[in-house]
Amino acid sequence: MRIAVIGLGYVGLVTAASLSDTGHHVIGYDADTEKLESLWNAEIPFFEPGLAQLVAKNVDRETLSFSSTLDTAIQDREIIFIAVGTPPGSDGSADLTNIYQVIDSLGQLLDRAVTIVIKSTVPVGTNQAIDHTLNSLLKSRGLQLSCDIVSNPEFLREGNALYDVAHPDRIVIGARSRRAFDTMRELYSPSQFTCPVLEMEPASAELSKYAANAFLASRISFVNELSRLADAVGADIEQISIALGTDDRIGPHFLRAGLGYGGSCFPKDILSLQHMFREQGIDSALTNSIQQVNSEQRNFFATKAIRHFGDAIDGSTIALWGLTFKPDTDDMREAPSLELAQLLLKAGAALRLYDPVLNAAIRERFPDDSQLEFADDMYEAVRGADAVVLVTEWIEFAEPDFSKLRGLMRTPVLFDGRNLWDPAVARSEGFTYYGVGRP
Ligand code: UDX
């Protein structure tokens, strides 16, 4: 099929590259012409494993191209994806300015009926509002045509995006006409996608996305809250998570206790969901506490370190391993490392920070403080340090050389914020070990 993707940020670029790889002909458009120049050379403005290769491959075989003019990008296209950003506004609601700018332009440019697919995460009712706005614009130009507006939310995870798009658990399609459902079924042809395709009203599709993210986040907050009780009573949250996850009705995913979730999606979508509840006058105690528990979890863990040192925290040096909000991404949005660094600095510690993808953008996110420095190597970060705090579980931290580590550190103390290490091994190597909810 002939497809345009408008907005080549994270979701848009992954969508464009993945669809072109299944044989569709895709043109990507973005208002940022410098970004387009880079994309022609398969230079990706963020870190996502495999994406640069996928872009290069499909540019080469001419299933993927880019255009700097919207008019050219949408010419002869059957489906137009919109994947522009919907950042949170000051009241937590999603800011839809970018989407409506695109809709206005499409209203001026379109001269045929096309299917418009909203990939951006948008509050319930947006699909219907877009339908009204776009089709009124077309009518005001004297055109007797009606475009189908489809909600097709994305469930991909950063760092696993290409796999998630190629192997979805389900495809959610919110539309109002048989024609639109059939177009989308042709796009996600059964020869490529064998998962269930769920047809529903646009409002249900829109809310499904928020529901999925809030539900996953609530599981994380639940185990994190429980981990504090486990800590207090001498139980092991890792074993409890297994006991929970092996119940078929519960399932094993998103039950890992740690420093809480970060990233662009969970925090933003929960704010937006809260806003929707408030708008409808519905009190959602549950949704409100997901975020609160998440934020408290950073405090809970920082307090462990601060208590360990007592007055000696002033004058101590603590190394932080892993700064991005999770492994295999360079995304720092809502990363727990930011809050932890602030809390430890405030308590008087000097910090040495390391991340496998440390770059200027990551450095800039931390305060310019004489007590905070960066290291280019994980072992360099711990030289003379009094403790290591494992913040993000990058694979290179999984099996450190404990004896080298001990040799470099002033005092051998580990704060394992992701329960990555075996406490027995760490202790047998001579470390004082603190995990999350582990005896
Ligand atoms: C998430 C959703 O998974 C995805 O479907 C949606 O489209 C976007 O938001 P993402 O933010 O990329 O994806 O990362 P994900 O792997 O889901 O992890 C989110 C956060 O939760 C990370 O900070 C991770 O460290 C944390 N997490 C995850 C836990 O703390 N415990 C867990 O058990 C799982």
Automatic annotation (TrEMBL):
Q: In which pathway does it act?
A: Nucleotide-sugar biosynthesis; UDP-alpha-D-glucuronate biosynthesis; UDP-alpha-D-glucuronate from UDP-alpha-D-glucose: step 1/1
Highest rank taxon of the organism:
Bacteria
Q: Does the keyword Nucleus apply?
A: no
Q: Which GO terms describe its molecular function?
A: oxidoreductase activity
Q: Which reaction does it catalyse?
A: UDP-alpha-D-glucose + 2 NAD(+) + H2O = UDP-alpha-D-glucuronate + 2 NADH + 3 H(+)
What Pfam families does this protein's entry cite? UDPG_MGDP_dh, UDPG_MGDP_dh_C, UDPG_MGDP_dh_N
Q: What Gene3D superfamilies would the database entry show?
A: Cytochrome c1, transmembrane anchor, C-terminal, NAD(P)-binding Rossmann-like Domain
Q: State the UniProt keywords alphabetically.
A: NAD, Oxidoreductase
| Record keyword Transmembrane present | no
Q: What class of enzyme is it?
A: oxidoreductase
Q: Which InterPro entries does the record cross-reference, listed alphabetically?
A: 6-PGluconate_DH-like_C_sf, NAD(P)-bd_dom_sf, UDP-Glc/GDP-Man, UDP-Glc/GDP-Man_DH_C, UDP-Glc/GDP-Man_DH_C_sf, UDP-Glc/GDP-Man_DH_dimer, UDP-Glc/GDP-Man_DH_N, UDPglc_DH_bac
Q: Where is the UDP-glucose/GDP-mannose dehydrogenase C-terminal domain?
A: 319-423
SUPFAM superfamilies xrefs: 6-phosphogluconate dehydrogenase C-terminal domain-like, NAD(P)-binding Rossmann-fold domains, UDP-glucose/GDP-mannose dehydrogenase C-terminal domain
**What Enzyme Commission number does this protein have?**
1.1.1.22
Q: Which PANTHER family match?
A: UDP-GLUCOSE 6-DEHYDROGENASE TUAD
Family as reported in the entry's similarity comment: Belongs to the UDP-glucose/GDP-mannose dehydrogenase family.
Give the protein's recorded name: UDP-glucose 6-dehydrogenase
Organism encoding this protein = Ferrimicrobium acidiphilum
